[in-house]
User: Fold this.
Amino acid sequence: MVPIKSLLIGTGSYVPDFVLTNQMLEELVDTNDEWIVKRTGIRERRIAKGMHTWELGVEAGRRAIEDAGVAPEEIDYIILSTCTPDTLSPTMSAIVQDKLGLKNAAAVDINACCTGFCYASDMADSFIKAGKAKTVLVISAETLHHITDYTDRGTCVLFGDGAGAAVYRAVEDGERGIISSFMAADGSGADYLYMEALPLEEDPLHSDRTYSEKNRFLKMNGSAVVRFTAAEVPRAIDEALRRANITPDQVDWVVPHQANLRILDVISKRFSIPKEKIYVNIDRFGNTSSASIPLCLDEMHKNGLLKEGQLIVCTGFGGGLTYGAFVLRV
Ligand code: COA
Assistant:
């Protein structure tokens, strides 16, 4: 039997027009452009004013389908990753299914926080390899402004909104497609990135249910997250490379989740991969959680940086804590 692989056949992305610069943040909190650029590499980020998360997802999905050149009815699964859904019911993926007329597609949302695109791609690959789907649309759509406290300088400088998407298709050519993956979690670090969805209620029947707005904002232990990523992201890459039976020198691009610049140094030093091979756009979009990797992939694709046959390692990390990596031959 010919082994089936999940080939990346299309990418798409969407970012809202409104640009929030470091200078604008100086007006909101006690910070400055120099500090933000030096510590994070971020110069600006986009904010989806008056837009739903699903709207970003629909646009990114539409563009990925067009890029893939497939008919809407060929999509048989939508996996949408988000930690900022507009509603818990309906799911974002069901809305996308309707808006894009994907009438043959099953639709499911997943939340693996910033590792969401890696998990969703791994799931798409599993569905394809199991013969349960032939053409899968993966979308990561996030409006992090909803969970960002614009009075907390430790977090509000980091996050932005955006969406990215990818279409994977079953192929039998044996060489190209998702080659390996490694997904993991360590819930012992749950408190390092924390935001409430539904609050704990001792007595729901008699509660006045006036929840504090502040509870929905993301709280972060930044240095603990840095330590975690420095230790676990290399491990995830190691394992994905080992499973793909390739060595770091064979890698053409590393596409990391765009959370902080320090991870670049860690990856570059640990694997002796030149920094030019690690894709970065954090300066323009900040941390867009699960959307950041597909945003990068789409930008690389549009700029002609992805050449057929190249080996790409995508690696994500974030809330949960979750982390993972997958190797893709484009
Ligand atoms: N502007 C100016 N000063 C700031 C600031 C800001 N935006 N944010 C924090 N500071 C201050 C702190 O208050 C602290 O001041 P103090 O020394 O007087 O107490 C000082 O800068 C150092 O704070 P610290 O938190 O130790 O900074 P840091 O070097 O760890 O950098 C991050 C902060 C957020 C950039 C860094 O922790 C980071 O990149 N964390 C990981 C983020 C991440 O990956 N998150 C998401 C994962 S999905």
User: Anything to note?
Assistant: DSSP finds ten helices and 13 strands in the chain. The first helix runs from residue 22 to 26. The chain has a mean pLDDT of 95.
